[in-house]
Write a structure and sequence with these properties.
The strands form three sheets. This protein has a 26-stranded antiparallel barrel. Strands 10-11 form a two-stranded antiparallel sheet. By secondary structure, it is an all-beta fold. The chain has helices at 7-16, 69-72, 565-568; strands at 49-62, 79-90, 95-104, 109-117, 121-145, 148-177, 180-202, 206-227, 231-244, 249-251, 254-258, 264-277, 280-293, 310-324, 329-342, 348-353, 356-363, 369-383, 386-399, 406-421, 424-437, 462-476, 479-491, 498-514, 519-536, 545-564, 570-589, 599-613, 618-633, 654-668. It is globular and about 80 Å long. The chain has a domain at 1-25 and 50-293: Lipocalin (Beta Barrel), CATH 2.40.128.
Length: 669
């Protein structure tokens, strides 16, 4: 679900960050002794009538792989056009309207319209179009026709792409009541998703095919907010309704071989509030939800259930308090509770053991999860420019019908901020965390499938040590540098089969340069390395093989902007970015063979533009964009590369794409 930024969101945000909850805004300053008659705002004028700008865009795409549409906004290999704009209207009575559009007419664009009276009411209309591309011109002998997957005499061609179109309507009412402020919001949206996605089934050999997508999601949100000088309260409801128009998949000789995504709905009611008492801020939130799914199940011989009758109830609560204990010391604490109670139907099913029926029956077990989270923090100002923060976090989780029913994660962290040096800020944070819990043993539901020595990484004992360093430096008024680096080591010290160790480290940097009034530049970079070790067993016993997995990611970019040309009418710019990801696996031990095939991808993106101001109201902009993309995934193979397996072919990407766009902008005054 998506939520607009309103008072309920503000209350939740304040509850999540109690140290920032106190209101230190200018509006709360003591102005009793100020003589406002001697002051006049020279620039506090509101423009009446129409303001803003409208842009008309036209250009040409050269695209030979629809995947380029993810970066260029459309995969059309021809002429393209769109409209963008930002228009405002306001009159002396306070009535106002705003219209924003971005690349409306292309595959990815949006439109926003709002109208109303300032501080009283507003009506909002939204439209979003989002299209994502996986691969194009896919050939497959299988064709989906109203739930029936049939084999065609000729190859069918389709695109693996999904289009989402969303429309929304919202209303907001505001009213001052005595010493409080009342705000009510209500909104409704509907999103339709169409297209094709890759899917597979076994009947009896593996088959990959393009599954049609045709689904609708409706969402209803409403909330009421009341706030005073030092308090606020909100009551909210969110509802989501999903409808899948694609039915179960059948074969000509066998019905219902693959279940369709079931229709479902979710509801959430929440109450939140905040209260400030002198130097203490208290906030809380209580939410109750229900998720429902009651679609018919695929018919299985002798199955006692015809529909799932699924229901999951959730209960979430949080309370946080933050107080300024002294002028140097601030203390904070919070407690959160989350309960997921699964009320879905249960019954006894015949148990299958590979190729035969055991004759025994076993009941499906709906899993319940309960979480308790505790946090304590202290913020101490040692001296001017030196601040020390420390805290302790604990998360206790209880799960039913799983390999480990209870786990608890404990974390102790400390952070030092130094702002005492001129034009130089530094912060360093260290953390030590430990996970342990109840006795680990295979449950009845997994004991026949899992090695008894196997430890699932999210349940296994783990020790974590992490450190993070942030530096901000501005040596003079034309350059600024931001640098951050981090390192974390996870040690799964009691694991014999599974993930045994992992290191995650990297850095980020940003540089901004203002060489002169007309010349500026920027640069950024980020790299991340994730190295993990895992152990496995071919003999279903002790570890007899190991594997080292090395993942690398890099993202670099730079840009240049030069203005002031042709009597300040011409502005030139250039932007470039590069990203690359590599994943290598190095196995050793029993029957592991040679080095696994790797995954590799890279992406170059370049944009050059020239913006020319014809006069104060009109401007022309010429933009050229270039995209170079390549990836190779060993899991993607040709249609008949593996005997007995039919795939969608090699859908890796290797392409160049170009876009030229001319934009005409007209400004309203």
């Amino acid at each position: 679900m998506s939520f607009k930024l309103n008072m309920i969101t503000l209350a939740m945000t304040l509850a999540a960050t109690p140290a920032m909850a106190a209101n230190f805004s200018v509006g709360n300053a003591n102005t009793d002794a100020v003589n406002f008659s001697q002051y006049e705002c020279k620039r506090c004028t509101q423009t009446q009538g129409y303001t803003g700008e409208v842009s008309v865009n036209a250009g040409y795409n050269s695209v030979d792989d629809i995947h380029a549409g993810n970066a260029l906004g459309t995969a059309e290999d021809s002429t393209i056009s769109a409209i963008s704009g930002d228009l405002h209207y306001q009159n002396e009575e306070g009535y106002q309207a705003k219209l924003q559009t971005h690349l409306l007419g292309m595959d990815n664009g949006f439109a926003r319209f709002s109208a109303g009276k300032s501080g009283v009411y507003s009506i909002n209309l939204d439209y979003d179009s989002i299209k994502t591309y996986q691969a194009g011109n896919i050939e497959s002998p299988f064709w989906h026709n109203n739930g029936m997957l049939t084999v065609s005499d000729t190859m069918r061609v389709l695109d693996l792409a999904q289009q989402r179109e969303k429309i929304g309507l919202g209303v907001e009412l505001k009213q001052d009541l005595l010493d409080s402020r009342f705000i009510a919001n209500a909104s409704f949206s509907q999103e339709d998703k169409t297209g094709h996605k890759s899917s597979s089934l076994v009947a009896p050999n593996p088959i990959n095919f393009g599954l049609p997508v045709d689904a609708r999601t409706k969402q209803l949100d409403a909330d009421i907010n009341i706030s005073g000088d030092n308090w606020l309260a909100a009551l909210a409801y969110q509802g989501s309704y999903y409808e899948n128009k694609i039915t179960h998949i059948s074969l000509p000789h066998l019905y219902d071989v693959q279940a369709a995504t079931p229709d479902n709905q979710a509801h959430l009611v929440s109450l939140s509030g905040q209260y400030q008492l002198n130097h203490t801020v208290m906030s809380g939130r209580l939410a109750s939800g229900r998720m429902i799914q009651d679609e018919d199940l695929i018919t299985v011989s002798d199955s006692p259930l015809q529909s799932w009758d699924g229901q999951v109830d959730t209960l979430d609560g949080r309370f946080a308090i933050s107080t300024m204990f002294t002028h140097r010391l601030r203390l904070g604490a919070s407690f959160a509770y989350s309960d997921r109670d699964n009320h879905s139907s249960t019954t006894e099913f015949t148990q299958y053991n590979y190729n035969s029926v055991t004759g025994t029956f076993r009941q499906n077990k709906p899993q319940d999860i309960t979480r308790h989270t505790y946090k304590l923090s202290a913020n101490y100002r040692i001296a001017s420019g030196y601040r020390l923060q420390t805290g302790y976090d604990r998360k206790a989780v209880a799960r039913t019908f799983t390999d480990r029913e209870q786990t608890h994660d404990d974390s102790l962290w400390m952070k030092l901020n130094v702002r005492a040096f001129d034009k130089f800020n530094v912060s360093i944070k260290g953390e030590h965390a430990n996970r342990s819990g109840s006795e680990y043993e295979a449950s009845k539901e997994t004991s026949s499938e899992n090695n008894t020595l196997l430890r699932k990484y999210y349940l296994a004992d783990r020790k974590r040590n992490a450190v993070e360093l942030n530096i901000n430096h501005m040596p003079n008024n034309w350059i600024s540098v931001d640098l951050s680096t981090r390192y974390a080591n996870d040690d799964y010290h009691n694991t014999q089969i599974g993930l045994t160790e992992a290191q995650d480290y990297g850095y980020n940097f940003n540089v901004n340069l203002q060489f002169s009034k007309f010349l500026s530049a920027y640069g950024f970079g980020a790299q991340q390395w994730i190295n993990s070790n895992q152990a496995g067993s071919q003999s279903y016993g002790a570890a007899d093989w190991q594997a080292d997995v090395e993942d690398q990611f890099i993202h670099l970019g730079a840009g240049l902007n030069y203005g002031g040309l042709m009597q300040d009418k011409l502005n030139l710019g250039l932007d470039y970015s590069f990203s690359n990801s590599i994943s290598d696996t190095y196995p050793t031990g029993s029957d592991t063979g040679e080095l696994y095939d790797d995954y590799y991808s890279y992406h170059h993106s370049t944009s050059a533009y020239a913006n020319y101001a014809i006069d104060e109201q009109m401007a022309l902009k010429l933009t050229y964009r270039y995209e170079r993309y390549f990836d190779t995934d060993a899991a993607t193979v040709g249609v008949n590369d593996i005997p007995g397996m039919i795939t969608l072919g090699d859908i890796n990407h290797n392409y160049n794409a170009h876009q030229v766009m001319l934009s005409f902008t007209y400004k309203l005054h």
